[in-house]
Specification:
The chain is an all-beta fold. The protein has no helices and twelve strands. 0% of the residues lie in helices and 41% in strands. A four-stranded antiparallel β-sheet has the order 1-2-3-4, with no helix packed on it. It has a four-stranded antiparallel β-sheet with strand order 5-6-7-8, with no helix packed on it. The chain has a two-stranded antiparallel ribbon with strand order 9-10. It starts with 16 loop residues before the first strand and ends in a 9-residue tail after the last strand.
């Protein structure tokens, strides 16, 4: 429905939802079985359904399976982390290529370290950090680690690529 509601309503057709994300005009739901469902405004394909048709009801993103996490941006993009650690995106944006890409189906973002999770579910001996890749250089920022923390960068195949111990203050790693 397109009727405005001021109280929460259950979304018909969705159950066993483990994560939800919302962009400016679209929403994403991740079900426990690893399937992704999207709905809302679909100006440039941010729903990932292979077209640019808007949808007022959840539609399965059939090009994806085995998804572990989802996120949405204000700038008409959707993001999906699969259980193998790969990142996929659709809509409009810099999809890791350094050029503006528009896609109405999820594309794998290349050149990233493996993403284990974008949630705060971490083991007690680990620190939460976020990696922001910069498609224009080999540099990136790491936030949320204290001085003396050890970081290990692992590629999408699980191979250790880099290990370093952080010093006090900000540190750029390249």
């Amino acid at each position: 429905t397109t009727t405005t509601h001021f109280l929460p309503l259950q979304i018909p057709g969705l159950s066993n939802v483990v994560r939800i994300a919302a962009g400016q005009h679209h929403a994403i739901a991740l079900k426990a079985d690893g399937t992704v469902w999207t709905w809302g405004w679909n100006l440039i394909g941010q729903l990932g359904t292979g077209n640019t048709s808007n949808s007022s009801v959840p539609v399965q993103v059939t090009a994806l399976s085995g998804v572990a996490d989802v996120d949405a941006s204000f700038n008409l993009m959707s993001f999906f982390v699969k259980t193998d650690g790969t990142l996929w995106a659709c809509g409009s944006g810099l999809m890791g290529s350094g050029t503006q890409t528009i896609s109405n189906v999820p594309l794998q973002v290349q050149g990233l370290c493996q993403i284990i999770s974008t949630t705060t579910e971490i083991q007690s001996d680990q620190k939460l950090c976020k990696v922001y890749p910069n498609p224009f250089s080999e540099e990136f920022n790491i936030e949320g680690l204290s001085s003396g923390s050890t970081i290990r960068l692992i590629d999408a195949l699980g191979r250790l690529q880099f290990t370093a111990q952080l010093n006090a203050g900000s540190q750029q790693i390249s």
